[in-house]
């Protein structure tokens, strides 16, 4: 059985980011006089940064295969522009705008995937081109003016709550039950994973440490659920985000596609020799990125109740930062969906905390830049430490 020291030394990157996240939450809770963990603020934090977390899921797979996507901010703007034009100008139902936005995202993902995978142009160049191309298309679609408001149904995607389904207690019981089910599901999957590792004679942590880990997760999840239950209930956008996290976590860990993605990022030549269809896999990575960008574009335009030519500015950098802070390696082949989510939450808590403190935007950007730099530096140091230990 692995000890606490062994567990941390073997996965220092992930352990470190979890500890850092908890420390940042505690720090800004103190600095804001408890406002950070105010139920309404916790709810607002989810609504304000959900689209960045959605983008981070797709960006993680792109980074794992050794590429990058610099166009997601422009694509978010274009998706919002297309949806707003159909709903506001053409009078189409809200769901037509959603479907059109997703199709735009898919088409752009296929466009990028074709040039990167089959033509062989680096993703950096292709998506840098896309950043300019799709921003220009956004201005053309909108005629360089903003469009608003969206229909009330469309606004509910990112601003709506499931509240009062089991109310009457001074809090939303439905939200608490969702938290209970989430804890139970996590515990069940972890127990199955532990039993499988024992069956194959792989090293696992001691039972006491395993139970302590589950208890810690249960406390955090239920605390989070309580904050939502005593505010406005369960955000609809959190359902969308949860479905995406579960789906893409499964794809990363339990699918042939996921194994191929990590194989390509780890060693592309070895992957080719092993029979991995590298071009097809990279193509589909960008298609998935396009789909998730389309979802993020719908969520963002719903949140802002309209479309603006300059929407999505710097979103790509926030998504990339979330992945690297959450444990993705610069060289590819390493990273998890959960890690990217934690990295995104680190950025969200920092931004929200500094806003509550009244810190200037310029200072906020400086802090974010330094955090990203330190995260990448830590990744490089950790690799060198591991290489030195093997030598």
Radius of gyration: 21 Å
What structural class do you assign from the helix and strand content?
A: mainly alpha
| Major β-sheet strand ordering | 1-2
Low-confidence stretches: none
CATH architecture heading: Orthogonal Bundle
Calculate the mean pLDDT score and round it: 87
How many angstroms separate the termini?
25 Å
Please tell me what the overall shape is.
globular
Number of domains: 1
User: What's the order of the H and E elements?
Assistant: HHHHHHHEHHEHHHHHHH
- Return the CATH class: Mainly Alpha
- Main beta sheet: strand number and arrangement? 2 strands, antiparallel
What proportion strand? Answer: under 5%
What portion of residues is helical?
over 70%
Number of strands: 2
The total count of helices amounts to: 16
CATH topology: ABC transporter involved in vitamin B12 uptake, BtuC
